[in-house]
């Protein structure tokens, strides 16, 4: 339970810092015979700050509860 709490804290901090997952895709723009043109586009999956906050608080709660058990 303690390890899961630490993982949640790390994920929560990362979600608050980066506020999204960014990735790159390659799209074909033009494909005529031997002429091929493509472009890289960056896309972002936004993560609301509330997700990071909830993960952070949940991780802290799990660590506190684990300490009370032992």
Description:
The protein is α+β, with helices and mostly antiparallel strands and 70 residues long. The protein has one domain (2-69). 54% of the residues lie in helices and 36% in strands. The chain has helices at 2-18, 49-69; strands spanning 20-32, 35-46. The chain has a two-stranded antiparallel ribbon with strand order 1-2. Helix 1 runs antiparallel to helix 2. The protein is rod-shaped and about 70 Å long.
Number of strands: 2
What is the distance, rounded to the nearest whole angstrom, between the alpha carbons of the first and last residues? 12 Å
SSE order, one letter for each helix or strand: HEEH
Supply the number of helical segments: 2
What is the spatial order of strands in the main beta sheet?
Answer: 1-2
Mean pLDDT: 90
Q: Provide the gyration radius in Å.
A: 20 Å
How would a textbook summarize the main sheet?
A: 2 strands, antiparallel
Strand content: 35-45%
Share of helix, binned? 40-55%
- Number of discrete domains: 1
What is the approximate shape?
A: rod-shaped
Structural class: alpha+beta
Low-confidence stretches: none
Short summary of the structure?
The chain has 70 residues and is α+β, with helices and mostly antiparallel strands.
Q: How does the SSE layout of this entry go?
A:
Elements: H1 2-18, E1 20-32, E2 35-46, H2 49-69
Antiparallel strand pairs: 1-2
Helix pairs in contact: 1-2
Keywords, separated by commas or semicolons:
single chain, 36% strand, rod-shaped
């Amino acid at each position: 339970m303690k390890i899961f709490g630490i993982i949640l804290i790390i994920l929560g901090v990362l979600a608050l810092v980066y506020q999204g997952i960014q990735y790159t895709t390659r799209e074909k723009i033009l494909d005529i015979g031997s002429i091929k043109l493509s472009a890289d586009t960056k896309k972002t999956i936004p993560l609301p700050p509330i997700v990071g906050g909830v993960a952070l608080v949940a991780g802290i709660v799990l660590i506190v509860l684990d300490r009370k058990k032992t």
